[in-house]
Amino acid sequence: MNLISIKDLTKQQMKEIYNLVPKYTTRELLPELKNKYIGLIFEKPSTRTRISFEVGILQLGGFPIELSGNQLQVSRGESIKDTANMLNCYLDGLILRVNKHETILEFAKYSKIPVINALSDKEHPCQVLSDIYTIMQFKKVSLEEINKIKFVYIGDANNVCMSWIYICEILDMTSYFIIPKKYQPNEKFKNNIVITDDITMLKDADVVYTDVWISMGQEKERAKRIKRFKPYQVNSKLLSLAKPNCIVMHCLPANRGVEITDDVLDGKNSVVIQQAENRLYVQKALLVYIFSKY
Ligand code: CP
Ligand code: NVA
Fold first, then answer.
1. Is 111:91 a contact under the CB 8 Å cutoff?
2. Do 258 and 284 fall within a single domain?
3. Are 32 and 59 spatial neighbours (Cβ–Cβ below 8 Å)?
4. Which sign does the torsion angle of CA 289, 150, 182, 46 carry?
5. How does pLDDT run across 192-203, given as a tens digit for each residue?
6. Same domain (yes/no): 136, 77
7. 203, 241 in Cβ contact below 8 A?
8. Is residue 40 in a domain?
9. Which bound ligand lies closest to the C-alpha atom of 51?
10. For ligand 1, what atom is nearest to the CA of residue 119?
11. Ligand nearest to the backbone CA of 126
12. Ligand 2 pocket check for 65: Cβ under 6 Å
């Protein structure tokens, strides 16, 4: 079983993963991944994802093996096919953060071991899987009740946003994606997904979610994007439209003062630290789930 897109999971599978989470919120050394060697290939920087996966694997008795940068012969032109065929012989799982989504698909094509997407240009499934858990925790709702929550994403239709749209489709969550027209996705989505450029749709939001306007790899577009997205900044004025007890989420890293102001990111509605902490617990549950199916 792989997790390449969040669409690889059904609602029922998510429920089973969330049911496992409470067992994995301790630092206790557990044996679930005993004798499992898991490779981590990171083509881009990462703080939360890489460290939470490494620590999680260690806490479950497995061995994370970092294979980043120029450590692999892929960096000298060896094919992904030949690399994946070798890794099948040595490893039990592969976690990849890649520049191009196609790289993960190519690894998965030849891998006989589970492949997990730790972020690509198209999706960030582990992030949104964990974020739903955070919403359930703070809003005190079960997965069955999650469609009662007014979820509003504001900003760029990037990898995180696309995984959010797909998970909202899977969970039938009525959700609003406030994105400037020119940057809106072209795909057609289910009826519960509202794509708009109308900032007033933030009204009565239970969850306000944003992410950077300049994702890794888009640095050259910085000036243009900052200008275009400026009205979409999550600041106290904009937040006053949402419910007073709304939670503010951001996958981090944040560009403070750009897509979100300091007072909001550090304010009483912000849950970003707990959100990041939950990555560790939900990913441990995910690993246990995936290896139980393997
Ligand atoms: N949210 C997230 O994936 O953070 P990192 O880039 O630090 O892994
Ligand atoms: N959209 C961001 C997410 C970082 C976790 C990026 O791709 O850079």
1. no
2. no
3. no
4. negative
5. 999 999 999 999
6. no
7. yes
8. yes
9. 1
10. 3
11. 1
12. no
Report the Cα–Cα distance between both ends of the chain, in Å, rounded.
Answer: 6
What is the CB < 6 Å shell around ligand 1?
A: 46-49, 119, 127, 251-253
Distance 197 CA to ligand 1 centre (A): 26
Confirm whether 1 is domain-assigned.
Answer: no
Same domain, 218 and 81: no
pLDDT surpassing 90 at residue 71: no
- The ligand 2 atom nearest the CA atom of 214: 8
Average pLDDT over residues 63-92: 92
Assess whether 149 and 184 both reside in one domain: yes
DSSP 39-81: EEEESS--SHHHHHHHHHHHHTT-EEEE--TTSSGGGGT--HH
Give yes or no: residues 134 and 214 share one domain. yes
SS3 19: helix
239-260 pLDDT tens trace = 999 999 999 999 999 999 999 9
Average pLDDT taken over every residue of the chain:
97
CATH number, domain at 87? 3.40.50.1370
Given this model, what pLDDT does residue 261 score? 98
Task: Give yes or no: residues 191 and 178 share one domain.
Answer: yes
Range of the domain at 262: 125-271
Q: Which residue has 């450029």 as its token pair?
A: 197
Ligand 2 lined by 108 (C-beta under 6 Å) = no
Determine if the pTM surpasses 0.85: yes
Q: How many domains does the chain have?
A: 2
Q: Are residues 161 and 260 in the same domain?
A: yes
**Ligand 1 centre and the CA of 132: distance in Å?**
16
147 and 85 assigned to the same domain = no
Look at residue 294 and tell me whether its pLDDT is greater than 80: no
The answer to whether residues 254 and 209 touch, using CB atoms and an 8 Å cutoff, is no
pLDDT value for 293: 84
